[in-house]
Amino acid sequence: MDANVLKSPTTFLQKMLGELPLFPVLQGYEDWWRAEGVEISTQVDRAGTPWVRMFDVLGKRIDEILYPPAYWYALRQGYKAGAVWRAFEGGSLADCYLLGYITAYYDPGMYCPYTVSLSTAVPLEKYGELAVKEKFLPPLLRKDDSVWQGATWMTEVGGGSDLGSHVQTIARQTSSGWRLNGEKYFASNVGADLAVVAARRESALQNVRGLSLFLLPRYRPDGSLNYTIRRLKDKIGTRSVPTGEVELQDSEAYLLGQPEQGIYLILETLNLSRVANSVGSVALMQRALSGAADFAAQRIAFGKPIRDHPLLRKQLEEWMELHKQSFCLAWEAVQLLESVWREKHPYPSRYHLFRLIAHLAKYLTAEMAVQSAKWAMEVYGGMGVLAEYGVERWLREAMILPIWEGTPQRQILDGLEAMERKRAHEHLFDYLAPFAEPQAYEEMVFQVEQLLSLPPEEKEAQSEVVFHRLATFTAESLCRKYTLQ
Q1: Are residues 394 and 275 in the same domain?
Q2: How many domains does the chain have?
Q3: How far apart are CA 310 and CA 231, in angstroms?
């Protein structure tokens, strides 16, 4: 693939996917980023963590996030383009992820509000009672400046992986509805108009079966705050999404789905975001490689552009191929999600195939984003560590991607569970058989079955090597699929 293709996310998507109806919208959205968005994004990143105005001049609690007006203007461009509403109004879930790719190419942090807003709208539309849906879904789907934002708040101070043990927020059912008491320690897109929140039902067991998913409005019916913001986090990157600590005190909430089915709704919500994380990782990867290729064409060393030196030229070619493979893996997760996102528990086998590919994609693409950003910094040399040129930002932004929505260890263990309990690897191998290289296919089948036959502790200890190989094998096989199309 020509390195020039890397300069435009829309051009790359066209190269990989062919002509799609949404491409004029994508091109227009990209044009806006080039004309206005990049400068706004740079200013927001350099300004660092925003702050919270907790009270108005009369002493009323308001918890207003103080970004510059240009931030809110920029943020609304993606909502207007359809980062959420296209999933419900004549478009597709995939359209939302395509817009997310453009966003993340220019600002991975800003893709987070769109992701969690979509991950709020989907469970609300799918599991909300009719009256709740009619009241709260339309504002999330608006196409003007009055659009509402969503958020997904699961993590508490004990961590996010072991939700069964660490979710201490209590949901109490009263005569006038559900009330939540507790706190959320990593609340991305804090200040959102709506959030989906994991909470433990009062007197329920201290495990995942005791969890339910609730819709939490920002304001009570009387206009007072329904949750308060303790503080905002000072983060290494993704400064274009406010992350804070939220306190819930008899906060009014609405149950989504059946109370005892909450863990399934929580995992569905996380999987929507994990796919977005994969898409965003690949987009950041493209941005880093594009910048490195452009710099290498201009930097002269030993009498010629450094891109013409055999070692660097070979490295760029290899990274471009890894980027292509990463995209194929992430996009397959999008396509499978498109086919199963309305399924409910108990899930069909295709859902478990999606789930395994989503874990593989999140695991591999996040690490590729970090390593490609690090390599781009090396290409720039000393200039790469200077904040004024923006190269170091790619690495700062990339560092959060392996952690968001579950660490690499979590992806491995959840993927292993899907293989053990749902035989998801068998569905995966059947799915890849027409595209995989035969010898590699047989070796991969053998390695996975060998891993699954080990005693529990040894199996977990040996799982990363096999999981990494499986992710790479899946990405390579899917690239053959896209080449054949």
Answers
A1: yes
A2: 3
A3: 51
Q: Give the CATH number for residue 73.
A: 1.10.540.10
Residue 207 lies in a domain: yes
Nearest CA to 81 out of 50, 117, 52, 56 is that of 117
CA–CA dist 389, 294 (Å, integer): 13
pLDDT tens readout for residues 81-95: 999 999 999 879 999
The answer to whether residue 323 is domain-embedded is yes
In contact, 243 and 155? CB cutoff 8 Å: no
pLDDT 10s digits, 44-83:
999 999 999 999 999 999 999 999 999 999 999 999 999 9
What pLDDT digit, counting tens, does each position of 2-50 carry? 788 999 999 999 999 999 999 999 999 999 999 999 999 999 999 999 9
Q: Which residues pair with 247 in a beta bridge?
A: 183, 228
The last residue of one of the domains, among 261, 277, 310, is 261
Locus of tokens 């660092």: 48
Q: Which helix (H) or strand (E) holds 251?
A: strand 243-256
Q: Is residue 1 over pLDDT 80?
A: no
Q: What whole-number distance in Å separates Cα of residue 325 and Cα of residue 94?
A: 18
* Region of poorest pLDDT, from 72-76, 162-166, 222-226, 283-287: 162-166
Where in the sequence is the domain holding 90, given as residue range(s)?
Answer: 3-140
**Both structure tokens of 95:** 């359209």
pTM, two decimals, is 0.97
Judgement on whether residues 245 and 297 belong to the same structural domain of the protein: no
DSSP H or E run through 305: strand 304-305
- For residues 436 and 433, what is the distance between their CA atoms, to the nearest angstrom? 5
CATH number, position 196 = 2.40.110.20
User: Does the pLDDT of residue 484 top 70, yes or no?
Assistant: no
Q: Which of 94, 115, 140 is the last residue of a domain?
A: 140
Classify residue 432: in a domain, yes or no: yes
147, part of any domain: no
Sorting pLDDT into bands at 50, 70 and 90, what band is 233? very high
The DSSP symbol for 35 reads I
3-state secondary structure of 41: helix
**pLDDT above 70 (res 485):** no
